[in-house]
Amino acid sequence: MSAVDWLNSEAFTAFGQHIMWSDMIGNVIGLVALALGWRRSIWTWPAQFLSGLILFAAFAPHLTGSAGKQVVVMAVAGWGWWQWTRGRGQAQDGSIAVRFATWPERLLMLCVAALGTVAVALLFTAYPTLSWDPWPDAYIFVGTLVAMYAQARGMVEFWFAWLLVDLVGVPLNFANGYAFSGFVYVIYGALVLWGMRDWWLRSRTTPALEGAAA
């Protein structure tokens, strides 16, 4: 059995749902990546890249649209690694400093999220093989990219974006038979709330003040 065949094989059954190895491993690594993001560890980006790579390998043989989305996620993860590598040392503990986005930045992200969702949903609708549920799938895909962008820039709004993705991701994954992904998104929600609080509190101290206190 090849590695791809193994990833697409069943790991176990729970509550009548067939849990695939790819779904379980990819999402567990994604969960680890979110926890690392909470801790402002630069290793959050390799973890996100690895999660995307596993899901790409699983989707590539039969779900080209889903595989293509993972390529975009991996590209953004590489960009995020580059951003955090450049920004390390901004905070007193040697990590990237966090802040709230400016109003122009918030407006830009909202516009990109809205227009991007419409554009991607229309693409998914025109090519049904790319997605089972064009509109919610487009919303999650674009929302994930916006969240990753905000994370790469050290914006607290990263957590708000993830929370909005979770609100659609949980029911969508359960509806499509990806029970493990649905459960993981529930855990995502808890991590998002804790991470949001941590970054919110950290954003009150600017890098300049942290340096002065050292």
Notes on the structure:
The chain has 214 residues and is mainly alpha-helical. Helix content is 73%, strand content 4%. It contains nine helices and two strands. The chain has helices at residues 3-7, 21-38, 44-59, 64-87, 103-126, 134-152, 157-175, 179-202, 207-213, and strands spanning 10-14, 17-20. It has a two-stranded antiparallel sheet. β1 (10-14) and β2 (17-20) form a beta hairpin. α3 packs antiparallel against α4 (64-87) and α6 (134-152) runs antiparallel to α7 (157-175). Mean pLDDT is 80; it is low at 206-214.
Summarize this structure as a short list of keywords or feature phrases:
two-stranded antiparallel sheet; 214 residues; 73% helix; disordered C terminus; mainly alpha; 9 helices
Computed over alpha carbons, the radius of gyration is 18 Å
Oligomer: single chain
**Largest beta sheet: strand ordering:** 1-2
Shape: globular
Low-confidence parts: 206-214
The structural class is: mainly alpha
Number of helical regions: 9
Mean pLDDT: 80
Question: Helicity, in percent?
Answer: over 70%
Order of helices and strands: HEEHHHHHHHH
Give the termini separation: 56 Å
Let me know the largest β-sheet: 2 strands, antiparallel
Question: What fraction strand?
Answer: under 5%
Number of strands: 2
